[in-house]
Amino acid sequence: MSFRLLVAAAAARRVGPHAAASAPRRHSVLTTKRGFGFTTPRQGGQTLVEKIAQQHAVGLSEGELVRSGDFIGIRPRHIMTHDNTGAVIPKFTSIGATRLADPKQPVFALDHDIQNKGEKNIAKYHSIERFSKLHGNQFYPAGRGIAHQVLVEEGHAWPGTMVVGSDSHSNMYGGIGCLGTPVVRTDAAAIWATSQTWWQAPPVAKVELRGQLPAGVVGKDVIVALCGLFSKDEVLNHAVEFVGEGTRSLVVEDRLAIANMTTEWGALAGLFAVDETTMQWYEARARHIAEKSSNGLHPIVNADAVAALRRSVESDPARWRPDEDAVYAKHIWLDLGSLTPHISGPDTVKTATPLADLEHKKIAIHKAYIVSCVNSRAKDLREAANVIRAIKQARPDHTVKAADGVSWYVAAASSQVQAEAQASGDWQVLVDAGAKTLPPGCGPCIGLGVGLLEDGEVGISATNRNYKGRMGSKKAHTYLASPAVVSASAIEGYICSPETAIAKANAKSVLPESAPRRVSFGFEHATPTLKTDSNGNGAAATAATGSAIDGFPELLSGRVVFLPADNLNTDGIYPGKYTYQDDITRDQMKQIVMENYDPEFSKLVQNEDIVVAGANFGTGSSREQAATALLAAGVRLVICESASETFKRNAVNNGLLVLESPPLVKWLRDRYQKPDAASTIITGLNARVELTAGKLSLANDAENNEYTGSIPRIGRAAQEIIVAGGLENWVRNRMLASA
Questions:
Q1: Would you say 637 and 616 are in contact if contact means Cβ atoms under 8 Å apart?
Q2: For 528, which of 81, 179, 701, 729 is 20 to 30 Å away at the CA?
Q3: Mean pLDDT over residues 179-195, rounded?
Q4: What is 552-596 written as a DSSP string?
Q5: How far, in Å, are 92, 107, 132, 485, 724 from residue 98 at the CA level?
Q6: pLDDT class for 659, splitting at 50, 70, 90?
Q7: Residue 266, SS3 per DSSP
Q8: pTM, to two decimals
Q9: Closest Cα to residue 270, out of 291, 284, 250?
């Protein structure tokens, strides 16, 4: 009997015709006080991530502290969905839910495909709005802005709270001291139905920012540099806490940009502590809203709420800071004073180059973008417009326009941002310089709408992602930069600094040379963490596993299909252009899986194959089709060097196991990865995987054993979700139990 048939049979036993008459098995997070206690509580204090998670945890015993590694039940302040609400609704109804557990919790904000005026998309948007009106939750229509920006503006993301979103850039909320982290669509449906889901508190990395940013260097340069300087997955699947004197010099807009792109750095959250800068930003925000409002006080962001926040921060500072003896997985530092403007790419955030080292190459561009949730706030648009103003001031008789052959696109992060930019004159300055305006939404950043990159083109963008094919053609190249650098580059037609563009306007072809500045960064000694065994499992985790629950197979076997690439992202597994086509069948999924990575994959893969892949597998967006498409192709297990935590969550929630085994991947690389190797390698080996024993062996067609190793054991929590057939059935079981 195949693994998926076992899963289906187990799920049928729990949700079939007689399920209501019997007491279904409930997930341990909801039946025990400890939850998924796989790790031993460590000595020492809590990180800020652990403290905020503690405030939103359910089922903890009195006095119990949340620690990294703990699997806990959480009740977040809000769950955000955007266009993918259209895919969450059928999951919600298929569970059997008829009402939202807490109508105040879900927030819908349409932002991704808002340029699409096709009948099908408009109908989807209307259906989402009708659902919201029926259930009474918060809804923001297309045109209001990018969801992450809207949640910050409207106070849904609030300091000291935990807010989850069905989008990978939910990390952004950390810029205002809110623990933001992504969940997947199945999690969203679970929260709608029960107000809860599960979360594994990740290891926490301390990132100490020293010094202050020099003039002309902004938050985007900080995170671009961090992604390039620490490009070996140092913070993969971690939460990042930014600390140090340097944080105090960063304005909130820069903090939001940095937190936003911790996603690309591989982190599950990026968090700044609330400080005086945060408080002054909220006080100014409340005054601004009150002045502009014709309907009285804002229900969340108002003077009283902000004053209460300040009182809490000042009267109970320990709540708002990590403990002095907090336990961190690692300690990274960066001297902000040594930083210069940096450029990311092309085509990967793991390559970051000082602009001064790049601009002499005069890399020609065809398109320029100031769009997206990372860098389209009022401050960003003002900095871009100020470059134009400075050029015009240098040559008052000169018309400043985007260079011939360059198409320049600008979109505000929200309607409020656009209104502010229009009132300040920044918007018109950009329009007069040739920028083509787009509605406040994701647009080109997600590869939707007008202005996408075409074959052979080069783009420079103030967005957060530059994977091949992300913003259009896979045969194009994308660099990432700050809005000011994008503005200067659009005017000059090649990647250059604002200083160069202004100097040229002053008829100075060469800027005075400055001494090269070396970026100062490094590691500090990290606080010791829980002892691990040879597989990297916590001691308690090892002790807590080893047997299979009823219905869970102890053994899997299948062909080994090797994908040697590292950082195989969700766009490579399941192209973004299909993400919001909700009517794609499983057979169609099978045909398009890995289309952006290797179009031959779908022809080579067979039912019950075991895929082995490189490091950081499934990085990128939170789209769960990356997991379900592999299931549709017949893949029964993925083993990789390391995996995106969001992808692993998607996979487990949908009944697909993902395990990590760096030694196995190294062995396969040594054997199969040659300069002319195919992207998809049929190894001719068969794997025998003992899931609960944590053992793995590979044999050839003659059944001669060629490799033996260990893998992480599958603990009870993951087993229960797998046996239930995924998180949806687990939620259904809970609903039946509480009926």
A1: no
A2: 179
A3: 92
A4: --SEEEEEEEEE--SS--HHHHS-GGGTT-TT--HHHHHHHTTTT
A5: 8, 17, 13, 50, 21
A6: confident
A7: coil
A8: 0.78
A9: 250
